[in-house]
Structures are given as C-alpha cells and as structure tokens.
Amino acid sequence: MKSFTYERPSSPAEAASAVAKTPNAKFIAGGTNLLDLMKLQIETPAHLVDVNGLGLDQVEPTSDGGLRIGALVRNTDLAADARVRKDYGVLSRALLAGASGQLRNKATTAGNLLQRTRCPYFYDTAQACNKREPGSGCSAIGGVSRQLGVIGTSEACIATYPGDMAVAMRVLDATVETVDATGHERKIPIADFHRLVGDKPEIDTTLRSGELITAVTLPKPVAGTHIYRKVRDRASYAYALVSVAAIIGKDGTGHVAFGGVAPRPWRVEAAEADLPRGAKAVTDRVFDGATPTHENAFKLKLAERTLGAVLTEARA
Amino acid sequence: MKFDTPAGTNPIDRLKVVGKATDRIDGPFKTTGTAPYANDWHDPQAKLAYGVVVSAGIAKGRIAAMDLGAAKAAPGVVTVVTAETAGKLGKGKMNTAKLLGGPEIEHYHQAVAVVVAETFEQARAAAALVKVTYTSEKGSFDLSAAMDGATDPGDVQGSPSGTAVGDFAGAFASAPVKLDQRYATPDHAHAMMEPHASVASWDGDKVTVWTSNQMIGWGVRDLALTLDVPKEKVRLVSPFVGGGFGGKLFLRSEALLAALGARAAGRPVKVALTRPQMFNNTTHRPATLQRIRIGATREGTITAIGHESWSGDLAGGGPEASVMQTRLLYAAPNRMTALRLAVLDLPEGNAMRAPGEAPGLMALEIAMDEMAEKLGLDPVRFREINDTQVDPEKPERPFSQRSLVACLHQGAERFGWAKRAAKPGQVRDGRWLVGMGVAAAFRNNMVLKSAARVRLDGNGIVTVETDMTEIGNGSYTIIGQTAAEMMGVTLDKVVVRLGDSDFPVSSGSGGQFGANSSTSGVYAACMKLREAVAGKLGFNSADAVFEDGQVHSGNRVVPLAQAAAGGDLVAEDAIEFGDLDKTHQQSTFGAHFVEVGVDVATAEIRVRRMLAVCASGRILNPKSARSQVIGGMTMGVGAALMEELTVDKTRGYFVNHDLAGYEVPVHADIPHQEVVFLNEVDPMSSPMKAKGVGELGICGVGAAVANAIYNATGVRVRDYPITLDKLLDGMPEAA
C-alpha cells in the first residue's frame, strides 16, 4: 500500500470538490473492495475522501411511489428494509446472494455499484491488464477466462462487472443520483451507468471525475414474482458464473437482466417480449453477438437454463 | 523403548483418560486469542522490524537487473536482502527450488528479496518499489503436453516407482469384463487459514525462529543447512500451527528470509507471506493424469488391475505417488502400477493431506464404481468380493488389521444404501436430481521414532515436553491424556509443552503418523518415569499400580507427588519401531457414503448427506478424531467440486492465487456429517494400539461424491473438479 492523505468532508458537494481538486483522489465508503485493492497496489490513490460521515444512509419513499436509497445505506440494511423486501424482492435477494454477512455490514449501496472486476489478471500486478494499466494488453484473452465475460467485451478486455445488486437494480430500472463539485446534480439511468469496455476498459462507469453518488432511486414497484437466481461453484461467498434477476407476471410477461456475463448488468429490453415463449427465445436474443472463449462458452447454455428455471419457479 | 513385538496388556488399556471424548485443552487459549501463533510473537527486549517478501513476476528465466535504490531510500527501510547480499546459502533436504531465488528464477513468485523496515506498512510500500527486470525463458507448464516425455522417477520415499505381479497384460486382455479409463486431478493448494509466518532473532551466532511448522526436527536441519551453520545454532519454536495440511512440513521462504533479514538488520524481523504469495511461492499438491485398467470375471472377481499415474515437478522434485493404494487395496493375481514424472516449471509440488492416496483414490474409486456398473454388481458388493486380508503383491504379509468390509457394511446399513437406485438419473426431489455414492477409504499407517521428556514435581504435576506440533489436530490433548493415563492422574494434573526444538525430537505432524507415534513416545518416557517413581518409593516397579494420583503396591498406597518430594523426577525416552510394519501391512480403512443433489436446470451440485465409517486402531480421543475426519471429508468435497489451481499454460503460474479465486467449501456447502469409528485396537502398531486417522478422512471422499453425481445424473465426469459446466451437456432437456 502506498502512503495516502485522508480527509472527512462535511457535505456531499464538499466531498465532490475535494476529489475533483486533488490529483489521484478517491472516495472511500465501506472500503470492502478499495482497501483490498490498495493493499495489492492495484488501486494507488494519493488521497482518500471518506464519505461515511455524510448521512446519505436513509431509505425513503419518493413522491411517485418509489424508493430513494441513500448512497451509504449498508447492504445488510437495504436487504432487510421492509419496503424493499415487500416491493422489490429481487433487490433484497440479490443483495443477500452477494459476499458474506460481515462484508454486507460494511458495504454500501454506492460502493457496491463501483466494485471492480474480479478478473485474476487484474489482480496480479506482474501481468498485463488494460483495465489496471491501460495499453499493457489483456492477459485474459487466450489466458484463463472461465469466469469472464461472454458479451459486451472487446479486444482490449473481457472482464465482467462481478456484482449482484446492480443486476437487480438494472431490472428495476433504477436511477443513480449524483452531485459534483459545483453542486450540480445529475440523474443517470442504471442502463447508462456501467460502460461497455470498448477501448477504454480502465473506465468502468460514466461518472465524471469528482462526481459523487448520493442515492439510487427505484421507480414504483412492478408487480410480479421477484426472483434472483445466482449460479456459482459453491453455495455461498462466490461470484456468479451466471445470475438472473427477473420480475415475471402471472401472464408470463416480465423483465430480466443477467449478471456474470458482461462488463455491466446485461439486459436487452427488446427480448423481454419473448418471455412468454420460454427461455431460449429470450436468451437467443439477449446473447446475440456473444463472443465467449472456449473456457466460458458454457455460460450461454447456463444462462438459458437458469432463465428456464426462473420461469419455472415463477409459474409454480 | 524399542517396539518390536506386538503390544500386550499395558496401562493404556485401562482407558480411564485415553479413549474418552475430551475437549481440547488448548481450546480456551484459541478461543480467547491467547494461543501465540507465529505472527503473534515478539521479543519485548529487542525492537522488532518487519520484512516483506518480493516475489518473482516470471515463471522461468533470470533476473537481468534489480534496482533497489527506490526501496532502500523509502521511509523506514532498514535493509534489503537479496541472493546477491545474503552470503553463501545452502539448500534444505526437503526443498527443490531455492527459497531465495536469483539470478536464476525457478518458478513464479519465487522469493527474490526481503525488504525490512520499521513498520509492516513501510516494508510493504518499499517492497513494491523494488524494480526487477527479467529475461524470460520458455518453460514447460502443461502436464498433458509433457506427459510423453515423463520418466521413471526411481524409488519414491523408499518404495519402488513401479510394481508388477503375474501377467497383467495377458490377464487384462483376456478378461471377459474390462475397463480402461483415464482420470485427471488438478493441482491443489493447502489453503490453510494461517499463512506462513516467522519471527527470527539472533543472539550472537545463534538464531531463534518462532515459526509455523509441522516438523521441528526437519526445520532445524534445513534452516541450518540453508544458512550454512551447525544445527546447534538454530532453535525453532512453533507451539501452535494455524493449519498446515503438509504445506508446513518444510522450511519455507519466510523463515529463511526472517533469519537473513534479522541478521542483516541486527534486530528481530517478522516475515509473513501475503495470501497471493501463498499459492505460487510455497508448495502444492501436484496435478495427476491417471490411467486405470481393471479386468474381471463375469462374477466380479478382479483378475487384473493396473494403475499408472503421471505428474510433474521442478527438476529434482518428486512425483505425486497416486498408485500406492492400488498396490494394497484389492485382490487380483495379475497387477501392475507405475509412476511417471515430467519436468514442469510450475511452483514446487510436494505433500498435501494424504499425498498419493487422496488423488489416487479419486481415480481408483471412480473406476471401481464404473466396473461395478459394467458387472451389474452393487458397488459395495463388488468391493467386498475383491477384499484381501494380505498384501496382494506380497501375500506372505498379512494386514495387521483390515476391516474394510465391515466399514462398508455398517456404512451401507446406516446410510440407507439399499434405497439407492442402481440405474442413474432416476431419483428426483423437487428441482434436484438425487444420487448416492460410495468409495473405500484407505491410508497407510506410518510410524516414526518419537521422543519425549516427562517431569513429576512435588505437587503431583506431570509436565510433558516434546517437539511434537499442534496443527489443529488435538496433539496437546491426546499427549496429555496419554501422560495422565500412564501416571494415574487426571488430565488437569498434566501440563503439555510442544513445538520447541529444545525439547526431545518427536515424529512431528504429517502423514497421519503424529498421533500414534508421538503418544507412543510419551508412553515410553512415562514408563521410565514410573520406574523412577517406584524406585523412589521403594516399590517393585512391575507391581506398582498408578491410579487416582496414587501409587499402589500390595497394601501400600502412597501419593504420587511424594516421589518428587525431594526434587523433580525427570525421565526421557523415545519409542523406536522395529520391523512389525514390514512383517505386517499396517493400514487404516474406511467407507465414505455421500448423497448429492444436482439441480436439474443449472447442474449446481450440493452435497446433502455424508457418512464415514472408519477402522483405524484405537481412537485416542473420539472428539478430536471426529474433528479430524470431518475436516478431511470437507476437504474431500472441495477436491470433488471446486478446488483447482488454475494453470496459465503460457505464463506458467497458478492464476487464482487468492481465496476468492481458489474456492474451498464454505459452511453452506457442507451438510450433516456423520462419523463412526469401529471398535478396533491394533497391537502391531504401537503400545497405544492406535493408528492414524487424520488423513483417512479425505481418502475416497472425492470419488464418493463423483459416484453420487453419476448416480444422480447419469453423467460420468473423470476430470476433477466436477463443476457444473462439465455436466451441462449431459443434463436432461430443460423443462
């Protein structure tokens, strides 16, 4: 870990300003990902702006019948929130499928959106990785890739966004709210929040420098059966090989997003019209143009079968 | 004490303390954080400095240049030691690659420097500033590609690399029912909770190292050899080991680098490997490729059995001896085994829990299941038909005890094996396809010389000192139980001190030889102490009975403590084993039964029930023995379902070098585990009549899981770990 300076601002705008004006500064909230990366010198911030004291830790109803989730609401609290459990079950289930109880106690809503990939080459500073060191190359292409992306990847990077919470938020059409150093507020649809890698895999999101997430809002609840199905090699404490976040109505229509397959939660709205026709019709469209490696091609079949299981569960 | 004739009745047979399910006496220290692990040690008299290991970023080649300027100039840095500055270094007998590399690099993450600083954080920051440029060389990293160039490794730990009895080729060719299959097991990491850690402190030319090591004697020898100093100048202290599984049998880099760093810094230095370094800097269980051929009559009698195994290691290393159990487990007049070793430039391979048998049985016991199906026989029955009571390669050698069939029968009964559907893919429980599997467990019982010192004081307290180690297995408790039984006192009157090279040399912990060997050493020392006590009290030692804190003889009863009224009585002895393990084959046996569910859509595999029935001599402490077995069963599930060091075959290293990437079972993966010990005593083994059990628990589990998966799904996977992607293509059509 490299030495760094540290401050605790007193307002969101002040926090944003502190990061914007200090070279190589980062926000820190729960620290469950950032601190690990700093110990390995994968992240090397010179300055940390600790946002834990800023409040932003409430879950409140919005005027249009939705929920506004403060950026610093801990994963444990969000998963246990009675309104979330009742009206946004897919989100509660996704949260509980992630990490461990101890980590969820620390991890925040905003931090979870910003967690970085688990590609093994990203985690080894002796290896080339365009996401960690732009222009150095991608060791995963032609390397070990079973866990990595099958769609939305590029010739520069095949890493995935590894989280669960954002996959549920994607199917819920959440909006990420931010503030910048000038106090300007912005609403970013979750669909636009995580970037496709393209030729700049080092940039994970569309946040601008110094822009601070203050909340995530959910629109009013969508009726239907809320399911989050995470498939992995062990029963807990592992990243998804494939996950499915779905809200399925009684008539078989609904919404679905996939995790563990792409650099962002993967949803193709146009394919959802095919849900009443069954899983294959949907995944054929959702994964149209996929470019899996020989090690992770199984994820396409797994995604189809997992969605099939979700539809079966919704019908039951 | 020489143990060269079968044990007769002795004081241990009273079983007043030994054989009782006893809480571990070190438990309260561990749960309250007062058991000092290696990284907890410090010398309050001297100012401790911290070392961080710099490890190589290539697999094979040479250091072209090393720039230490920035690191040396970094805040708090005391010294930097490299191969260039370390002075003349030798190599330990148990090490293949150098523990401090350079200029030649032999494997990825081989240590190339230790940076010592005032604080850990300063050392870690400075270590990242060491700039090393390498000249890479092409290496060999792919076992399947290297297989054809593999050679005969010669004798392996005193056994030949190959054996042949009868006419295997002819008998196999003419067998009416036969199987010829290939199996693969991947490289495994010990993945113990406590990373390698050491604190070294020099006093003149003598070094003391507080470390985490299973084998104190080997560690002293190899550190002395590596530092090129007499072994009298080395003291190792390791009272608690936070998991080893064979990964801490040997001197490793952090202990050497702590000693070198401390010598250069002129003050004590603490070094711990980081978690990412644990996977490529240390040793691992090597991957195997195995071929098994079994020929049998239509009635199920095996007429020919052949087992070949290929593994790789650095030049000068050894093979994974995964054919050893096949020499002993089943009868057959015609048989062959062979080990082949390829040179690979991956990190160093070596022992991990049940080396040889664990991966060997993962293959052999699938093959037995496949063969039973070909024969239309129940897998339990097929194993029973082919049981043997003598070494099948040397029929003049009987087994000292062999209750494999009893384990299988009792297990089948308890597990409800009769309900298993012989045809796979038939049982459904909601979204789960359900199957049952069985496998035999087999692990040899090794015995090693082991010494101890016992002291009786005027308060009647018996203190045992031996360099035996506590690796989470319960050594403190069974050694205490042994001394209490021998001296006729309760366990609270016994103090046990372990893991210090100032104490008599024990067997150490490994190969499941520790419990039986080390308690036998304590038995020997206690026999001597009993003689001293009897002499002091004027008893004929043959008549004296040690019981309830007293010594009885005829009508006379004297408190034990009285013998030490005039000063402590001390006795030291070692158990040395004769040739009973040559005249008799000493092994431990068991049967593993497993039920799994496989999700019909996603092919996720979840273990639902597990049972192990074990026959492994006298059980010294049923509570800690059960813990050993369920730990082995858990590790077996890991090997079956998820554990794999993933090799980057271009760059030559294990890519998944952290505990997020190298998955081991979590609590949610492990269902209820039942363990049954058959009531066995083995007088051929030792005066304790005990045998090993800690590694029996893992042996066969992987195959039992694999066989259960096959029974559930009809998909046979012969390439571990059995992950869902290997099942998907064979699963029923999605609903």
List the helices and strands and how they pair.
The complex is a heterodimer of chains A (316) and B (735).
Chain A: E1 5-7, H1 12-21, E2 25-28, H2 34-39, E3 47-50, E4 59-61, E5 67-70, H3 75-80, H4 82-87, H5 89-96, H6 101-106, H7 109-113, H8 165-171, E6 175-179, E7 185-189, H9 190-193, E8 212-218, E9 225-231, E10 242-248, E11 254-259, H10 279-286, H11 298-315
Parallel strand pairs in A: 1-3, 2-3
Antiparallel strand pairs in A: 4-5, 5-8, 6-7, 6-8, 9-10, 10-11
Chain B: E1 2-3, H1 27-31, E2 49-55, E3 61-67, H2 69-73, E4 77-82, E5 104-105, E6 111-117, H3 120-127, E7 131-136, H4 143-146, E8 162-165, H5 168-174, E9 177-185, E10 197-203, E11 206-211, H6 216-227, E12 234-237, H7 253-265, E13 269-272, H8 277-280, E14 288-296, E15 302-313, E16 334-343, H9 357-375, H10 379-385, H11 404-415, E17 427-429, E18 432-444, E19 450-456, E20 462-466, H12 475-487, E21 494-498, H13 514-537, E22 545-547, E23 550-553, E24 556-559, E25 569-577, H14 580-583, E26 587-599, E27 605-615, H15 622-641, E28 647-648, E29 653-654, E30 673-677, H16 701-713
Parallel strand pairs in B: 1-25, 2-13, 11-12, 15-16, 20-21, 27-30
Antiparallel strand pairs in B: 2-6, 3-5, 3-7, 4-6, 8-16, 9-14, 10-11, 10-13, 14-15, 17-18, 18-26, 19-20, 19-25, 22-23, 23-24, 26-27, 28-29
Helix pairs in contact in B: 9-10, 9-16, 12-13, 15-16
Uncertain runs of chain B with pLDDT below 50, 5 residues or more?
A: none
Radius of gyration of chain B: 27 Å
Shape label of chain B: globular
CATH topology descriptor of the largest domain in chain B: Aldehyde Oxidoreductase, domain 3
The gross shape of chain A turns out to be globular
Helix content of chain B: 10-25%
For the largest beta sheet of chain A, what order do the strands appear in spatially? Answer: 4-5-8-6-7
So what's the CATH class of the largest domain in chain B?
Alpha Beta
Strand % of chain B is 25-35%
CATH superfamily of the largest domain in chain B: Aldehyde oxidase/xanthine dehydrogenase, a/b hammerhead
| Annotation, overall tally of beta strands of chain B | 30
Backbone structural class of chain A? alpha+beta
- Strands side by side in the biggest sheet of chain B: 4-6-2-13-10-11-12
Order of helices and strands of chain A: EHEHEEEHHHHHHEEHEEEEHH
Mean pLDDT of chain B: 97
Task: Catalogue the unreliable spans of chain A.
Answer: none
Structural domains of chain B: how many = 3
**How much of the residues of chain A is beta strand, in percent?**
15-25%
How much is the average pLDDT of chain A? 97
